[in-house]
Every structure is written in C-alpha cells, then in structure tokens.
Amino acid sequence: MDEVLISRAIMESYFKNFLDALDVEVAIAGAGPSGMTAAYYLAREGVKIAVFERQLRVGGGMPGGGMMFNCIVVQEEGRRVLDEFEVRTKKYKDGLYVAHALEAVSALCLKAIKAGANIFNLISVEDVMIRESASGRDVITGLVLNWSAVSWSKLHVDPLTVRSRVVIDATGHDGEVCRIVSRKIGPRLRTSTGDIMGEKSMWSEKGEREILENTKEVYPGLIVAGMAANAVFGSPRMGAIFGGMLLSGKRAAEIALEKLRVERLLK
Ligand code: 48F
Questions:
Q1: Atom 4 in ligand 1: residue holding the nearest Cα
Q2: pLDDT tens digits, one per residue of 148-186
Q3: Would you say the CB of residue 61 lies under 6 angstroms from ligand 1?
Q4: Is the beta carbon of 172 within 6 A of some atom in ligand 1?
Q5: Beta pairing partners, 52
C-alpha cells in the first residue's frame, strides 16, 4: 500500500469536486436541516448545486434534538417530508410525530448527496459576490469562501469565490449571509425595515406558521431558508420541532427552481 497514492487519491478527487463547484446554479450556505432539504429537492431536479458547511459535521442543530436529547418532533406536514427521505417516525399524539435525530440527519445528507448535491464541510461562507444587473441593481452572484480553520485561527488568508445563479442562506439563527448583505450593501433586504429584524422568543406554533411565508427571495439572487428566514423577518424561534425547517428547505428549492426556469425562458 502506497501512502502517497492514498494522499493523491484524496487530493485529486477532492479538487475535482471543488473545481466542479466553482460554477453552480445554486450555492447553499449551511448544511443544517433546511439547507440539506433544499439541496435534495434541487439536485433531484438535475440542478447543479453545492453546499458549504462551516462545521466538521453536517446537520446543524438537528443532531442535538432538544437540549441534547437526540429525538426530533415534526407535525403532519413535516412527517410527509421525512417519509420522502425514508426516515421512520412514531406517532406520539394526534398530529405530532417523533424521529431519531441522527437517523434524520443521516437520511437528509445521504439522499441529498445521492441525488447529486456536492456538500463540502469545514468551509465557511465569509462574503458574497455581487454584480450590477441590467436594471442597475446589485445582484448576488456567488459566495466567498474560506477554510473554517482559517477563521477559527484568525489567520489573515484571502478567500476564494464560487459563482452561482442563486444563493440560499440556510445558516440558521444568525442568518449570516443576509447579515453580510445588510452590513456591506446596506439595509436593503426585502423586510419592512430593510434590515435583519431579529429572531423573537420561543413560540413554536407562530414560528412554524410564519416560516414558510418568510422563506423567500430577500435580496436579488438571495433566498433565505430555515431559522435564518425567521431571524431575518422577525418571527419567533420554535425549538426542537423541525417540520418547519424541512418545509422551508423544500420551499426554498421551489423558489430557486422557479427563478432558474424564468432565467432560462428569458435567455
Ligand atoms: O442551525 P441550523 O440547523 O439551521 P436550520 O437548517 O435549522 C434550525 C434548527 O436546527 C434549529 C431550530 C429548529 O426549530 O431552530 O436550530 O435553519 O444549520 C445551519 C448550518 O449552517 C452552518 C452551521 O454550522 C449549521 O450547520 N453555518 C452557519 N454559518 C455558516 C455556516 C457560514 N458562514 N458558512 C458555512 N456554514
């Protein structure tokens, strides 16, 4: 066994994937439940996508269930999405189902990758790329990336950039991509203040109800999904109920597909 050959196999395969991700149709920031669900529904339709996840592992807040008890709860609509991912659920009470958090995370990741999604861990999104559109407005045209290890160790290393027709911010509670946009471009998000309105305190029912409405194109070329959507539009958090995250990811994929379809028609 040749150790150098093993190293070469890793490096050549990785960089082939990475080179392929430099120009995609949809780039997703964050491989939590909403990001991986969006990735699956897009990849399934043959859309070229890449997901960039800051941490070593995927899943965001899902593996921890509620307060480290690794079970998740979904409502009826969420259960239907889990069914599609072949995640087993148990009925707890009418309209409430429980699944193993790790089974759910594994299934979301496996199905997304098998559908064709390219998922990169240990890479952080630190900025967006912009261009001026024909109508004179700035449009998000990609993500600026760096190794997570670079930012964690506070090294001064310049990033690299990937181009994409659509970006999905699925970075969770901090809504990091939207935050970058509002900080660098100005308070011009499609919220009532133009700025990030900030997540509100726990109210599961309201949070779950509002998340789908909040999942939308929040700036030209940028769709916000999952908990980031509620943070951007000032809706409540909802705790360890995950149906809204799955449905929001699915909704973000539908919006991105529609944008790509319209673009193709206009070409
Ligand atoms: O936080 P996260 O799980 O977001 P989500 O998909 O789901 C929220 C639930 O987990 C839970 C909840 C349920 O009611 O409220 O919190 O909306 O996943 C977000 C992922 O994005 C990564 C982060 O490590 C996590 O895995 N992430 C955050 N910022 C960046 C990032 C960044 N700048 N670059 C890359 N990845």
A1: 172
A2: 999 999 999 999 999 999 999 999 999 999 999 999 999
A3: yes
A4: yes
A5: 29, 120
Q: Rg of the Cα trace of the chain?
A: 18
Give the domains, in start order, of the chain with CATH numbers.
22-58+103-266 (3.50.50.60)
Q: Where are the alpha helices (DSSP H) in 33-175?
A: 33-44, 76-84, 101-115, 148-152
Is residue 6 within a helix (H) or strand (E), and if so which, with residue range? helix 3-20
Per DSSP (E only), the strands in the chain are 23-29, 49-53, 71-75, 90-93, 96-100, 118-121, 123-132, 138-147, 160-169, 216-219, 222-224
CB environment 133-145: b (16+ within 10 A), e (fewer): eeeeebbbbbbbb
In eight-state DSSP terms, residue 174 is G
CA distance 138 to 161: 17
**Structure confidence by residue, pLDDT tens digits, 34-90:** 999 999 999 999 999 999 999 999 999 999 999 999 999 999 999 999 999 999 999
Q: Of all helices (H) and strands (E), which one includes residue 259?
A: helix 243-266
